[in-house]
Amino acid sequence: MERLKGVLDPEIGRSIVDLNMVRDITVDNGNVTVKIALTVAHCPLAKTLQTDVENAVRKPGDVESVKVETTTMTRRELEELRLRLQTASTASSTQKDGLAVGPGIERLGKRGIRSIIAIISGKGGVGKSFVTSVLASELKKRGYEVGVLDADLTGPSIAKVLGVTGKPYKGAGGGIVPLRTTSGIKVMSINLVLEDPSMPVIWRGPIVNSVIRQLYWDVDWGDLHYLLVDLPPGTSDAPLTVFQSLPLDGVIVVSSPQDLASMIVSKSVNMAKKMNAPILGLVENMSYLKCPSCGDMMKLFGEPRGEKLALSQGVPFLGAVPLDPAIARLSDEGRIEEYSSPIIASIADELRARAAKQADQLAQALPIAWSMEPSS
Amino acid sequence: MERLKGVLDPEIGRSIVDLNMVRDITVDNGNVTVKIALTVAHCPLAKTLQTDVENAVRKPGDVESVKVETTTMTRRELEELRLRLQTASTASSTQKDGLAVGPGIERLGKRGIRSIIAIISGKGGVGKSFVTSVLASELKKRGYEVGVLDADLTGPSIAKVLGVTGKPYKGAGGGIVPLRTTSGIKVMSINLVLEDPSMPVIWRGPIVNSVIRQLYWDVDWGDLHYLLVDLPPGTSDAPLTVFQSLPLDGVIVVSSPQDLASMIVSKSVNMAKKMNAPILGLVENMSYLKCPSCGDMMKLFGEPRGEKLALSQGVPFLGAVPLDPAIARLSDEGRIEEYSSPIIASIADELRARAAKQADQLAQALPIAWSMEPSS
Fold first, then answer.
1. B240, A125: Cβ pair inside 8 Å?
2. Which residue of A341, B46, B176, B335 has the smallest Cβ count within 10 Å?
3. % residues pLDDT > 70 (chain B)
4. What is the ipTM metric for this complex?
5. How far apart, in Å, do the first and last CA atoms of chain B sit?
6. What's the helix, strand, coil split of chain A in %, to 5?
7. Candidate from A10-24, A162-176, B56-70, B345-359 with smallest mean pLDDT
């Protein structure tokens, strides 16, 4: 029971012991069985919770095997939990909504979205869309409801790498219904709206800005644990609009090992600082390449310097992702969800841990997973 | 003499035979000596002309060695030539100047600049700045006066890769004097003006647009054979301003082998078409990589598809440039001028050939080389 105290409910962010979810523990010669009461029967986060429990209880030479059994809370237990959560949460929820940040630029609200994370870089071609889409699928694998907003109107990649085609339509509520990937990630990109994806949108700033706001506000994102926003390169209109209009919870910076990239990425980091956006950390992409023939490690774009760059900018370093020819292939085939990156998986875990610390998560609404339909 | 007819003066674009520059031909058993009268004593284009003459005259089994001797035209000969050129040219020069393209957007004039070439791609990180800077140095090697305008205000790379530091100052004529690289290329970039190159310019479109116009118009570029303009990614404000404000003579499109890149590059090509900018062709960058250890050829970003892309867009294919770790290193060290790329060298020759075909070159002014000071 002591070991289980550290296990947090993947959504509520509280100890499962405190939440009264641990119902039974049986110890039989180093073989432990734990019975957990889930909040809802088909909770998509159940698997993540099971793995967390296993990892917490197992200890070589002490506990050799862990079996996790699940049951479901009764309606009465659920009501009790709901009451307890609502009392515990301070009413600080709507604080961020409707915050004016400048003349004529109103910060939009969060509605049913828990965390909005922007992926920025300043420089183009360093792999923002790759990080965004793989991070989205890592979060989805853990059972979270995830959406991706492609804020790069002039160079939209998200729909293609995630293999989404078709036209979004207007739902019953009047909002635009985003399309879903095979794994269920909600996607909205300007390329889904264009008749021909090779046609450019030759728009000046004011139109770009209003369309970005529409892609966020006029889309019926529904309840989401995470909305990832893929930003275009640069520090002009489009990124500025995202920083000013969207209630961002965090920013992930993507860099590449070139000194040149570092300089331009620094501009982006400094922009985020100026805009008071919390920077979650920096990930270096294309750090090295392993030759498929001889296995030799190549530093194509120079010595990895992500850690140094992160240090000099005073932001956490999230890791170095190697260049892999499979990335280009899977992106071109719209199958990037099949790609696994241990570094990006750890960023997903980092986001989970962070969200758990944010007590005001609870203030917003009841857990999203409670209202989610079983995925199949 | 017949073979020399095809040799064009590298600046005037007319046959050196017609220009009365061939003064003597001596043939001695397959060894030929050609005497050429240069327009000015220290003509920086002399070497290019000498090479052209050698290549035209030499034929294995016929002419084994070619010696090119040079002399200088007398003042009277020069006056005669000048008169002949001015009569031949039709007075169509100022046609392009002051062309209004939209309300409030006036197309700027060309002043002393012969050819303005924009390097575009739509997608970031495919190597626009690399192509721009290497093309500039290839043209400079051939003796031309070259300038580079970095129109990427939010991600300026040009000053760094060309190793230019220092602050531009106001010249006697009131214009800003661009800085020069070691080989003499004139450079103007926003990063040369910023106090700290890691600080972002967080500007919305209208400011971006007016600064791009200033970098062109308020800078004293002087007489140039070529001004290369490095564009930012995207199809929004900055590229739009360059297309609308600058009297472009041509556009070079840079792509990378990813299918994803092709889609976004197509947007850029379609933008150039909509803006009636003549597209000189498409160059594919990072087409393949040779492993430095085992020599294996890798297609990092997928199968090269530049030629197919160019064909589908109806633009000439200029060639495929391999990925080379030396590029990142030299760029980071500001020594990209030392890099040689046969493909980009051939693009430089293509530009020469094109310029030679444009008869209205002559109409603008007298050859720039005539007024250039010897470089050392």
1. no
2. B335
3. 89
4. 0.85
5. 33
6. 35, 25, 40
7. B345-359
The one-letter amino acid at A308: K
Report the C-alpha gap between A140 and A225 in whole angstroms. Answer: 10
Which helix (H) or strand (E) is A31 found in, with range? strand A31-38
> What is residue A256's DSSP assignment?
-
Block means of pLDDT (10 residues each) for chain A, length 376 residues?
89 85 92 90 85 91 91 87 71 41 70 93 94 97 95 96 94 93 97 93 94 95 95 94 95 94 95 95 93 86 91 95 93 96 94 69 58 52
Taking an 8 Å cut-off on Cβ atoms, the answer to whether A259 and B332 are in contact is: yes
Residue B104 has what pLDDT?
55
Distance from chain centroid for Cα A196: 29
Q: pTM, whole model, 2 decimals?
A: 0.87
Give the distance from residue B152's alpha carbon to the nearest chain A alpha carbon, in angstroms.
Answer: 9
Q: Are residues A236 and B204, on separate chains, in Cβ contact within 8 Å?
A: yes
Q: Please give the domain boundaries of chain A with CATH numbers for all domains.
A: 3-91 (3.30.300.130), 113-365 (3.40.50.300)
- Cα dihedral A71, A74, A77, A78, rounded to 10, equals 90
Helix, strand, or coil (residue B274): helix
Can you spell out the DSSP letters for B280-316?
EEEEEEEEEEE-TTT--EE-TTSS--HHHHHHHHT--
Give the minimum alpha-carbon distance from A130 to chain B in angstroms, rounded to a whole number.
11
How sure is the predictor about B85, in pLDDT bands with cuts at 50, 70 and 90? Answer: confident
Closest Cα partner for B321 from B336, B306, B303, B338? B306
Q: Please give the Cα distance from A194 to A171 (Å, whole number).
A: 19
